[in-house]
């Protein structure tokens, strides 16, 4: 079964083939469940003109926000600007094209792309700027707009555990967009916290089958907290 081993030992090998002007679909939500090392490798490679599809663009100086520093991203397809001042500034200055997409629609665009479905209808966005110029069709008396699916040249995702064949499990909320993103790349690279031997993962617990994964790399993760909120103590509540 050695031919099924998808593990690579360097980030350079993991992202080999990434070129300027490609589309990269990235899993994660803010800083939760992001492939930190793969993003760092894209930064190191200095590829330009990228279209990046992700829920948002990380924060200043971390996550996908790193790719904004040298203006490697030409276009973001995302749900919101988030906690990233540089993202906001580049958008307002016209340096970055941004296609804001409702969050559920973005998830379905990835899922549909991975399933080979070219387009779908959704009521979300009808009658708003999101729906301008898009085909409208009525189902059961309700108008829906047609949204095209998304696929990418690369998809980069992060998992908790994976085997050498790419079968993987995401942990809690770090699952977020990763399963959909994993299916939508021509080349999907998985960065994982823990690599286990084939057969160690309970088949019924696997979130993404290895058939979707092309490369696996074991990473080291900083796991920054995007916004820390502390609960008040009982004494503080009494005051």
- Estimate the strand proportion: 25-35%
- CATH architect. name: 3-Layer(aba) Sandwich
The Rg value, from CA coordinates, equals 19 Å
* Main beta-sheet annotation: 8 strands, mixed
- Name the CATH superfamily classification: Glutaconate Coenzyme A-transferase
Structural class determined from secondary elements = alpha/beta
Distance between the termini: 64 Å
In total, how many beta strands? Answer: 11
Q: Assign a percent range to the helix content.
A: 10-25%
In the CATH hierarchy, the third-tier topology is known as Glutaconate Coenzyme A-transferase
Outline the low-pLDDT stretches. Answer: none
Shape: globular
Give the helix tally. Answer: 6
The CATH class is Alpha Beta
What features would you highlight for this structure?
239 residues, alpha/beta, Glutaconate Coenzyme A-transferase, eight-stranded mixed β-sheet, 6 helices, NagB/RpiA_transferase-like, EC 2.8.3.5, CoA_trans_fam_I
Explain this structure.
The protein is of the alpha/beta class and 239 residues long. It has one domain (2-119, 150-218): 3-Layer(aba) Sandwich (Glutaconate Coenzyme A-transferase), CATH 3.40.1080. It is 19% helix and 26% strand. Strands 1, 2, 3, 4, 8, 9, 10 and 11 form an eight-stranded mixed sheet that branches. The protein has a three-stranded antiparallel sheet with strand order 5-7-6. Keywords: Transferase. One of its GO terms (molecular function) is succinyl-CoA:3-oxo-acid CoA-transferase activity. InterPro entries: 3-oxoacid_CoA-transf_A (IPR012792), CoA_trans_fam_I (IPR004165), CoA_transf_BS (IPR004163), NagB/RpiA_transferase-like (IPR037171). This is 3-oxoacid CoA-transferase subunit A.
